[in-house]
Amino acid sequence: MRNKIVKEVSRFVFRYQESDKISTSWGDPVVGFASAADPLFEELKNVVVSTHTLPRDLLPDAQTVISFFLPFSKSIAATNIRGKMSSPEWATCYVETNELIKQLGYHLHEVLEKAGEKLVAIPATHNWIEDKLVSNWSHRHVAFIAGLGRFGLNNMLITEKGCSGRIGSLITTGAIPADKRPEIEACLYKYEKSCKKCVQKCVNEALFKDSFDRFKCYAQLLENVEEYKNVGYADVCGKCLVAVPCTHNDPVKLKLKAKN
User: Fold this and answer.
1) Contact 201/26 with Cβ under 8 angstroms?
2) How far, in Å, are 85, 125, 169, 238 from residue 121 at the CA level?
């Protein structure tokens, strides 16, 4: 089942971007699995918000949580380096990736249903408490539990293919062995107190080495919503994700590999 799901995710993303209606391109996805009974899900009520949903709240007989990271292409990330506002390509990519996550959920639902399993897909975004700007289902934290990576100073999950991309997650009754979580930090600052380029890149002074002002960050997202009404609801920025060591790689893993 595990290999089938990984192949289906990769195949679907590859075919999806071949459509003439899609302008975004993605790299090969990274997929991880977690046990729905992992005690870390309960910990999210302390780490994220007290109302954070548990897998079995959404699917009572849940066995596995599937998490996936959809990396943006290097060409799209490159468009978002300059200026305060997100690039048109980045805004479009955000909207198109949210739709891709939705369609991928429909596809996997059919695949697992044929295998006799149930599946629940969670929306890519906007499943949050607006006055607190925290999510009742944090895809990033779920991805951490599923072993996809470690958090960077920019609050993004750094996977083996970096942090420039989008994360989605699903819950299924299918029993799939959980992935091991990486033990070594992926963020250069957290690993050796170097870098901090994401802090320098924040265009609205919301990110610091020891704190994050989510409301100032959100204010910047809303500026982009207004700027890019023509492409959809693009509440996005992404400046702290591009032209940094973790854009497309796990920089600590690269550093350690170079030493050996």
Assistant:
1) no
2) 31, 12, 7, 24
Chain-centre distance of CA 16, in angstroms?
18
Query: Quick check: helix, strand or coil at residue 103?
Result: helix
Domain span at residue 38 reads 2-259
Distances (CA, A) of 51 to 35, 47, 55, 134, 220: 20, 11, 13, 10, 26
Query: Across the strands, what pairs with 71?
Result: 165
Please tell me whether the overall predicted TM-score, pTM, comes out greater than 0.70 for this model. Answer: yes
The residue count for the chain: 260
Domain count along the chain: 1
Give the pLDDT confidence of 97-136 residue by residue, as tens digits: 999 999 999 999 999 999 999 999 998 876 677 777 888 9
- Enter the tokens of residue 18: 């071949």
Residue ranges for the chain with pLDDT beneath 50: none
Residue 165 to residues 50, 70, 98, 154, Cα–Cα distance (Å): 27, 5, 11, 14
Tell me if 164 sits within 8 A of 242, measured CB to CB: yes
Q: Residue 96 and residue 108: Cα distance in Å, rounded?
A: 18
Contact 190, 154 (CB under 8 A): no
